[in-house]
Amino acid sequence: MSAHGPVAPLDAGDVDHFDHVTDVLVVGYGCAGAAATLEATAAGAEVIVLEKASGGGGSSALSGGEMYLGGGTEIQRACGFEDTAQDMEAFLLAALGPDGDKEKIGIYSRESVAHYQWLVDHGVPFKPSLWNSPTWVPPTDDGLMWMGENSYPFAELAKPAPRGHRVTSDGFGGKVLMQKLSEVVAATDAAVHTDTYATRLIVEAGAVVGLVARQYGKTYTYRARRGVVLTTGGFADNAEMVAQHAPQLVGLGVNSDGGDDGRGIVMAQAVGAAVKHMSAGQVGISLVPGMMVRGMIVNSVGQRFINEDVYPGLVGQAALYKHGLKVWVILDEQAYEEVPVDERWGVQPHFVAESLEELEQQIGMPPGALTTTVGEYNRHAAEGEDPYFHKSSTWLRPLESPFAAIDVQRGIAPPEYGEAGRGGAEVFTIGGLGTTVDGHVLDLDGNPIRGLFAAGRATSGLHSWGYISGTSLGDGTFFGRRAGVSAAGR
Questions:
Q1: The predicted structure's pLDDT at residue 346
Q2: PANTHER family from the entry (predicted)?
């Protein structure tokens, strides 16, 4: 039995009475829950939202506010970019794979412009201006940014266009997104029960018909005439689940609101739900992208392993899963000085040396390791080429003495990822429940579980392994909407 009581489903025949009855129960009040609520109420359903915290928002409200949207949105056109759903789909299939969900990525890309308009119609603001250099979160309120679409190999697979749409804010946009969606939810007839923790589902003749929840130490039963929608987030805050499913994330800092405990996932598993890609995680590596792209990132023996101009989350995944985060950013004085002070986040080199031989010795790398790597890099950079990893010529320049090294494991996490965790990264899980494009939770045979729906980080979503910023808020709101419609129409 877990700390919150049994997770095994309760048979409806064993319930004496239901304390609350509604059409649709939405469990979790982040962006996916808000979107599900809005579409379910718009479809004419009575809705109750359960939220274990004292108010809505969840991890969505703490995020940077990026939403991955494209296909020719108003913001893209205003910034002078043409885009198609086909190019967006091709990029996401490559960036979120291997084995990204083709059906979900396809429909998400084709309906992205309409989803952008839905967000705008619900009060979510986007500014028609472009932030044009590598970063986690721009220090401005620019509404569009690149997410590695113009880097190798993606630029060869699809016509590049920036698709990182940032919610307008004087800081992180996640709080503005949730504020706007919550205002619209408040204008509906949906009831929001806060400080209410769902513990187990209630089933009847193989269908999910409600759940049991705890509020202020008391147990309550809820009946859902049409469906239960789980939008409860991932499991990065559940150490036991992380150790069981994603051991390479153990011991790292967590990027969440502290409540991503996986309860929704295990409640669904207890009624036969299948899960997908549970070992996958987003890795917010503790480095400044603007420094890395102007220099290089190397492993513990001084070898480059990726082109530094890709989305930094993909760098983080490569650094963690292939090199245990034992990686270094190598740069020179010019590269460091070119990064504006307000974009350095206080990061300073851990070692500085006049020669690469001296820097190798300070770091503890094999003699000649950096000398060879930087020598090869410089030789080709002088010609504007990177035959090893194909970094864009925009960022290629021979590095010159004095040289500096930044130990990523001792680095400072970018603002989007809070305080630096152990090992130089902040992570969250991106695996979860298997669902259809309409939010139906699937069982181990691939069949929908009647009455059970899910969206957001409680599901595997668009992803299999890769991650691009904006595919949590974008995925959550888009498929949250579809789950709400499905539950209301059951």
A1: 87
A2: 3-OXOSTEROID 1-DEHYDROGENASE, FUMARATE REDUCTASE
What pLDDT does residue 171 have?
A: 80
| Position 234, amino acid | G
pLDDT averaged per 10 residues in sequence order, the chain, 490 residues: 81 97 98 98 98 96 95 98 98 93 97 98 97 89 96 97 95 94 98 98 98 97 98 97 96 93 98 97 94 97 98 96 96 96 89 97 97 98 97 97 95 48 81 98 98 98 93 98 96
Q: What is the pLDDT of residue 106?
A: 98
Residue 174 in tokens: 């996640």
pLDDT confidence of residue 78: 98
CA distance 291 to 394: 14
- Parallel, antiparallel or unpaired: strands 196-204 and 10-11: parallel
pLDDT score for 5? 85
Distant-in-sequence, close-in-space partners of 165: CB < 8 Å, separation ≥ 6:
66, 67, 68, 69, 73, 75, 116, 126, 143, 144, 470
